[in-house]
Amino acid sequence: MKKVMSMLMILVLSIAMVPSFGAEGDIVDIASGNEDFSVLVAALQEAELVSALQGEGPFTVFAPTDEAFTELLGALDITAADLLAHPQLSEVLLYHVVSGKVMSTDLSDGMAAATLQGEELMVDLSDGVKINDSAVTAADLEATNGVIHVIDSVLVPDAFSLEVSEEPMAEEKDIVDIALGNEDFSILVAALQEAELVETLQGDGPFTVFAPTNAAFEELLGALDISAAELLEQPDLAKVLLYHVVSGQVMSTDLSDGLMADTINGNSITFDLSDGVKVNDSMVVTADLEGSNGVIHVIDSVLVPSDFALQNVSMDEEIPKTGDVGLLPYAFVGIMSISGYALMKRKGQ
After folding, report:
1. Taking the model in full, what pTM does it have?
2. Domain residues for 318?
3. Taking CA 30 as the corner, what is the angle to CA 27 and CA 36, rounded to the nearest 5 degrees?
4. Per DSSP, what are the bridge partners of residue 323?
């Protein structure tokens, strides 16, 4: 009798819920069409399982609601972002999927169903309908490639732990990664790409980069009365960028007043410690931003070699010089590095 009542409950819940979902399409279409599955859909996207569940199947999906995910996050004291970043997220999701179309009328008490994750789910009809410890709250939501059964808690496989380390190891970033990660260095990044120096600065190094920010570039563009596009079109762009790069890792503690350092451009830069820290005429505003292949020192103006001349641009004003020939390539290198300075630990100036 209990089994009969359980079957009737499933059918009633199914009929009650179908109008709410209403959408037609595959399993992903139905889930995407209901805001109560927003976390599940985000997880499928993050785990790159969307195309798999849009396949022919058929599949049977036991789908946790947003409330089910919220309950799990609270129990683990983590955020949704933490869960989505978990390296074994796909295993948890696949533990909710069974190959074939299993309708509510196909279930039986004590039935075991193999999941795409590899472990089995257990069906319990002794008190309502449960999949492991999760109660089915709506059943038989048919899709073109399978069926969805809604459950009230997230299923967690025995061989998997959703616990997230309190202090996850940060991925090491090279100079280019750091630059790409900060929108305040978009001009520097564009220059590095245009000058084809990205791969160079992703090398083993180590490199020391004196990196100008967008504000530094904008100041130079204003003084020259040219656009960023015109600057990027300069044939000597790489030379300016490389004038901002020194071979080896030179920390702030290695600097001394009057020190001269050869840049990769071939020309030298000079340090002045009499009033703060200056590289030629540029002030260092943030120092010792370490990357996996060197260090970045942020500067407030672009270093320009003394013999650099704009080409294909009509102008009346003389280009402000801040150093020797070859500053252009180094300036761009510096810009690239600065683009990610906010991601590095500030150790001081």
Report:
1. 0.45
2. 175-343
3. 120
4. 305
